[in-house]
Amino acid sequence: MNQPEETLDPQDWTKLREVGHRMLDDMLDYLRSVRERPVWKPLPEQLDQEFDKPLPVAPEGIEQAYEDFMQHVLPYPLGNIHPRFWSWVCGTGTPGGMLAEMLAAGMNSGVHGAAQSAVKVEQQVLSWCKEIMGFPANASGILVTGGSMANLVGLTVARNAKAGIEVNQYGLKSVTKPLALYCSAQTHNSVHKAIGLLGLGRDSLREIPVNDRFEIDIAALEATIAQDRHDGFRPICVIGNAGTVNTGAVDDLNAIADICARENMWFHVDGAFGALISLSPKLRPLISGMERADSIAFDFHKWMYTQYDAGCALIRSEKAHHDSFRVPSSYLSHFERGVASGDAWFGEYGVELSRSFRALRIWMSIKEHGIDKYRRLIEQNVAQARHLAELIDSNAELELMAPAPLNIVCFRYRPLGFTEEELDGLNKEILFQIQERGIAAPSSTVLNGKFAIRVAICNHRSRFEDFDVLAREVCRIGRELASNDAFDQVREIWSAAD
Amino acid sequence: MNQPEETLDPQDWTKLREVGHRMLDDMLDYLRSVRERPVWKPLPEQLDQEFDKPLPVAPEGIEQAYEDFMQHVLPYPLGNIHPRFWSWVCGTGTPGGMLAEMLAAGMNSGVHGAAQSAVKVEQQVLSWCKEIMGFPANASGILVTGGSMANLVGLTVARNAKAGIEVNQYGLKSVTKPLALYCSAQTHNSVHKAIGLLGLGRDSLREIPVNDRFEIDIAALEATIAQDRHDGFRPICVIGNAGTVNTGAVDDLNAIADICARENMWFHVDGAFGALISLSPKLRPLISGMERADSIAFDFHKWMYTQYDAGCALIRSEKAHHDSFRVPSSYLSHFERGVASGDAWFGEYGVELSRSFRALRIWMSIKEHGIDKYRRLIEQNVAQARHLAELIDSNAELELMAPAPLNIVCFRYRPLGFTEEELDGLNKEILFQIQERGIAAPSSTVLNGKFAIRVAICNHRSRFEDFDVLAREVCRIGRELASNDAFDQVREIWSAAD
Lengths: 498, 498
What we know:
The first copy, chain A, is of the alpha/beta class. Chain A contains 16 helices and twelve strands.
């Protein structure tokens, strides 16, 4: 042919190799020294100019692209790999996970199915998950990007299995009775999002009140289901929490399992982080009953510290799972031989058809460290949460805002003589300053109408002393701010913000 | 504290560094030598023993985990990084993309939002995408795992914007008229999957016949919409194809845009691979009208050759997009200062809350190579498809099964004197042998009831000569098989399989 052929492979492999080794050294240095840097720092305004630049037409080359990364990207991270980052429920990742990602990206396997090792790796990871969660070996499962997708997968199967019609074929317009689902008022918003997406309407989700431990009120749940039946609704599913996002509360999963069995309802567990305490014989009684669920959603990138993104949905009934996502088509036929053979077609068990090889970093990390290490680290994080809760309880200036049964601690700085509104403003300001000074990165929530500093510990780098620092610095900054002059300023800022 | 503290960081960074550099060298060697290996090879049966091993309790260490990878995973890839892999619509990835993935995995950013560079990178990639696709700068968008998710996002917004009720709140039980959506009979099954998931019911999707170029029949589309209105349905959306999965056909997107404007319907384009021919002024007229869509779904990991997973949904109306996915919650509050500041919260624009830093590999690759390089590679793949189509057309033993307007070529080996059924069996056997011998990996489909060998070219490593090899080997194996004795065996195998 006349055309000159081009490729994205390098002309000079030696040069690419040099750049690659430099990147690897830089990143390992970066990980090793993470404790020495501030948790987070604000983005400088001039950074926007860099990211407003137009589409590059001509090549910069990989060295310049890397230089851009080093100058404009790496210095401004979220901070979640730092030992004192405890915002939301982010995990930290590991150095070995970074290397595993490089391997996966080199293979660049598309894991929709077919005869390839990546499928075998995912099957093995799923087998291990069933073992961890006490699910039977013939249960079904799939790796997804995270808890939100896993909740969506579980709730899709729940809807389709229990609606009483062929929802995928005929749609929710055809239901004979309006459907109803149940969860506690502390349930994660990915459940609300999923229910909206599924066409059920968020008004079909009954948010049941919680007790003072932030666990679902079982009597209220039963009463609501009975009332709904009386009113002509069809109750189809209860979503139980194995660790709520706000406080780590665990619903009474055995009671929910009993109700679902009796009422012929689907039992889904959102165990985004909490499901993994299955690993600990000591902690496992807290989530007793989870093993009776019809579906469980959880993440590896939270409390197994793997790189993003890595979540999992386990579904007890393989048939119900497959029926929900399978759409046969000639261009995706399976055969007995060739590339399109193989016995697992994950594209038929979830939303994604194109799927990355996210199983590899989980598989390699479990092999690298052994699962017992994760058990110890989870117990360590729980012990750290308990340590922080004790620090707070024993300090008259600090107030624990909720029980801390797992790895989440909500508290505030509470000097005498301040109104609730003033305390909200004061604690927001403390949070900002703790973050802005690079000391630590808790996040926040609102509990019973009160602003709380929230510490969620999915961090294998945190040490007990890091929580001493947090308690001490919250008090120090709090005292600074609560001194008369300083607080007048804060009050002004916060009333202006309202 | 008394507890000994553990971490997943290595005790010996020097050793980890050595392993890492060895991995990098191995993977670069692997990529450099890919052409020398068979495209694919069957998995040996004894491999299953390895992947049946129970959950590892004790640590193996990273070196042993890597050894397991080298022995059991790397040798059995899907094959999609090979120059002669043309199955489904898989991309190849790049060496630079592998390095970018390592960087992203090192940072391990959770990209739900917040004040961090990863958000800026994603915003910039989205700006570039809008520029490429001819969308206005104030349009909305999000990176997702792939075309299936991007179609789901687009169709969710379509449903919510056009249903005439607040679907997220009240659900599809509350629609006053049943909804109807429209696409060609050649539309990808991710659309059917999404419509099932969304609770619309697949029976609400009208599959309009195609013309002999496999493009939607516009007159039939108009007639069906009119009939549906007459019958009391509410037509809400047309899905147009910019490159169908079977043959690369492009629907008349301007005609669809006109219909949607006139009928107040949403216009969604599935441009999984084809949308990217926007990059080529020469090819762009083929997809004229796409820039008028309300939403577009496309992938980077297909025809921009980036690593999995990387798709994109663009939505013209930011408000409609945000309204569809936003669920406010106190633990996800945004603030003016601190970590939870920042002006883009992607968790409110898609299903995922936990999100990986998939923008980085796109950003770095575009910088590395410049966008014009992608234009040339896409044109190269189209020229290669044309070359293969000409080889087929000029060869009496081969039959082109459909026009090949883009990068997909469907054909079969067609000796004289065989029935249609026999031709199906013969061509399946040819496909298997081409794959099993490691020569090339096309996939297959069925067109007008006939089995076709299908070649989809999203491969920056393919050369024109690779298609000469394919045509020659198909004929060679075909002749072998069609010789009387051999074919009797094939016939037996295939009638047994029925």
